[in-house]
Write a structure and sequence with these properties.
six-stranded mixed beta sheet
């Protein structure tokens, strides 16, 4: 086991090299912070030390404060008092105000607390392409080691606000132009240059600069207030439910108005308080949950190594197939794109080209890179090119007989090691592979639309899918920059199954007399990117009906068959497709309520006959929110209970990345636990008595509520598939 430590070596030149060692990114764990303090104190005492160079081991400076400590504090409702006052005692008193100068020698990255440590030094020397940034706001917190004060003083307020609020990292070359980095040198020259720079400061050949006391880069007070005013307005617009961006700006302003030390003290208090906020807890949980998705008991712990996937075939060049192909070629994986004829094939290639050209237009891809990426695509109208592929992803229309025919062909044509994947979003994988003899190689690779943009990849396994296939596909997912989630085989798999009550609950509320635009507003105010009716306009009514049929067949005891969608189609409304849905759409796809829909909704209410005494129900916004999301929590409990998902945190990630559930609420189960199983159960039970099976509490939820156990607590161990 690698020893976490901070070492110090003093050279003949009088420069002490203090080195952090905490692989893989030299995180500032409690022991590392204590080690830095100890070594600095020793260096100050020693007469043979003239100056200090602080650096990190293994080609990285530091990735920042140890996030495990944050999670530990949040889970125990503790505090950070055991750390001491890092921003004051270490960063100011020990390093910045020391009688001997420090130079940070940066390689690889200096992020979060790592950059804050570097900014406390009197100069910063870096190798090329080192990543610099303060990404703390992604975790629902603010920089806590003086970063809110020093960064504006080194690069100017405008740029500092951008870096912090957007969690935007920059390269060392840009840092040099901004004044954050004093010199960029080759890795071979880094330590020599840093040592000389430190001695030059000690011997007054270079200026001894204390970042916290600089004001030359700061804008005038009037200009600074305008910058902060604009930033506050932007943060309120883009993140209305989040307190930490506003706190960050308040702390920055304190330093501008009252001085760096006052800013550090306000930052210290704000940092300690915001760690225990609900948004910070949610975002930290989501961070760790994403990291845990690739740990699959009984699969990733078997010692299997992922095989190299050198070439992939994609069947179908429609929106999904072309999006999947785009994801693959963007990661330099050659693709064979197959269609039924030359015309459809060219349309598919054109879609891929359009996906890539949008990157060229935005400046994120050069024309040369575009041409090189397009050269990775081979078009085909037969299976000749399939004899040497390592994986096939089928993305044709949702027709069982067609998919069965395709997989029978693939079994005969593809090599024996080839992964046979389907992008189906609803069809049982056992049905798809029923006519083959290679069900151990059949797996679901469910991408979300648009496939080259959406980050989630559902890996769907059956009882027969080989662990090696799953390990291989997890690795492919990571290589193409997706977050892979391994789930079991059922109607809707994980994401679509969890959220089928979402639309159905909204439709039930609509026919119970609740205004659909009010419903959408409540849901978007909660943090969803769009409400259920706006979403249905986007997805399309025919798709909604077809998917709805699948769920009625599978879970008929707890579905609500709405008359509203079919009435919309009868009235020649198709959502965004023809610009007329629940909303009216202009040429820029901007939505506004459609007054004429009121008559259609009234007809749906008459047809359904579920309004009590024929009168609209009276509900609060909170009740609307709960009547839509509690059934989702309830269905998610069933997904866990049946073993479709391995752990609750996987479903939290799925809900955020697949359906847009707000990350700062931690995910659907994490949010459910914040509400409490007891309240969710009693609410659903009451509604089920009035409105039927859609709200019937699951056995899992009932048990957790009765015993006071969190919804996220692990389900008793069982063999995979035993409840499928």
């Amino acid at each position: 086991m690698v020893k976490v430590e901070v070492t110090m070596e003093v050279g003949a030149d009088g420069v002490a090299i203090i080195k952090m060692n905490n692989p893989p990114v030299n995180a500032l764990a409690v022991t590392v912070l204590a080690g830095l303090k100890e070594k600095y104190d020793e260096a100050m005492r020693r007469n043979d030390v003239k100056a200090i160079v602080v650096t990190g081991n293994g080609g990285r400076f530091s990735g920042g404060f140890d996030i495990n400590v944050l999670q530990e504090v949040q889970q125990t409702a503790g505090n950070l008092s055991h750390l001491g006052r890092v921003s004051v005692d270490l960063m100011i008193n020990t390093i910045e105000d020391a009688k001997k100068p420090s130079v940070a020698a940066i390689q690889g990255l200096a992020l979060g607390g790592g950059l804050e440590l570097a900014m406390s030094c009197h100069a910063r020397i870096s190798t090329p392409k080192a990543q610099l940034g303060l990404p703390e706001l992604q975790l629902g917190i603010i920089p806590g080691f003086g970063g809110t004060q020093r960064l504006p003083r080194l690069v100017g307020l405008q740029k500092a606000v951008e870096i912090m609020l957007l969690s935007k990292s920059i390269m060392s070359e840009e840092g040099s132009k901004l004044g954050l980095i004093d010199a960029v040198v080759s890795p071979g020259e880094l330590m020599t240059t840093a040592r000389m720079w430190a001695l030059d400061i000690a011997e007054r050949r270079r200026p001894w600069i204390i970042s916290l006391k600089r004001t030359d880069k700061l804008e005038s007070l009037g200009e600074a207030r305008e910058i902060l005013k604009f930033a506050r307005a932007q943060a309120k617009k883009t993140a209305p439910n989040l307190p930490h961006p506003q706190l960050c700006l308040d702390v920055i302003e304190e330093g501008i108005v009252a001085g760096g030390l006052a800013g550090v003290l306000k930052e210290e208090k704000g940092f300690n308080d915001i760690i225990l906020s609900e948004t910070a807890k949610g975002l930290v949980h989501f961070f760790f949950s994403q990291r845990a998705t690739t740990k699959v008991p009984g699969v990733t712990d078997l010692g299997l190594k992922p095989r190299q996937i050198k070439k992939v075939a994609v069947l179908g060049g429609g929106l999904m197939g072309s999006g999947i192909a785009t994801s693959l070629v963007l990661s330099n994986i050659p693709v064979v794109l197959k269609e039924v004829n030359a015309g459809f094939l060219q349309q598919g290639i054109n879609r891929i080209s359009a996906n890539l050209k949008s990157r060229v237009k935005k400046g994120s891809m050069t024309q040369e890179k575009f041409e090189k990426t397009m050269s990775l695509i081979t078009g085909a109208v037969d299976y000749a090119e399939f004899r040497n592929v390592d994986m096939v992803i089928e993305a044709v229309i949702e027709k069982i007989s067609l998919k069965q025919e395709i997989f029978s062909d693939l079994e005969k044509i593809c090599p024996a090691h080839c992964i046979l994947a389907t992008n189906t979003s609803t069809i049982d994988l056992n049905l798809i592979g029923a006519k083959t003899h290679v069900q151990d190689r059949i797996v679901g690779a469910h991408f979300f639309s648009p496939a080259h943009v959406m980050p989630l990849l559902e890996i769907v396994r059956t009882e027969k899918t080989s662990p090696q296939i799953i390990v291989d596909l997890i690795n492919v997912g990571k290589n193409i920059k997706k977050v892979p989630i391994v789930v079991g085989n059922c109607t809707g798999f994980a994401v679509n199954r969890m959220f089928f009550p979402y639309t159905q609950s909204a439709h039930m509320l609509a026919v119970l007399g609740v205004d659909i635009y009010r419903i959408d507003k409540v849901i978007t105010s909660f943090g969803m990117p769009m409400g259920p009716f706006r979403l249905q306009d986007l997805v399309g009514y025919e798709v909604s009906i077809e998917v709805g049929k699948q769920f009625v067949t599978a879970f008929g005891d707890r579905t609500f068959k709405t008359p509203l969608t079919e009435l919309m189609i009868e009235n020649k409304r198709a959502g965004e497709k023809n610009g007329k849905g629940y909303y009216i759409y202009d040429e820029k796809r901007r939505a506004s309520p459609a007054p004429e829909v009121k008559e259609i909704i009234e007809q749906a209410r008459k047809n359904s006959k579920i309004m009590p005494d024929g009168k609209p129900i009276v509900v609060t916004d909170r009740e609307i929110l709960e009547m839509i999301f509690f059934p989702v929590v309830n269905e998610t409990c069933r997904v866990l209970d049946e073993g479709i998902a391995i752990k609750a945190s996987d479903l939290d990630v799925s809900s955020v990345l697949g359906m847009g559930f707000p990350a700062y609420r931690g995910g659907i189960i994490f949010w459910g636990d914040s509400i409490g199983a007891g309240h969710i159960y009693s609410s659903l039970k009451k509604w089920s008595e009035s409105y039927g099976g859609l709200f019937k509490p699951s056995a899992y939820l009932e048990e957790r509520a009765a015993r006071g156990i969190p919804l996220s607590a692990p389900v008793a161990a069982r063999n995979f598939g035993s409840r499928l």
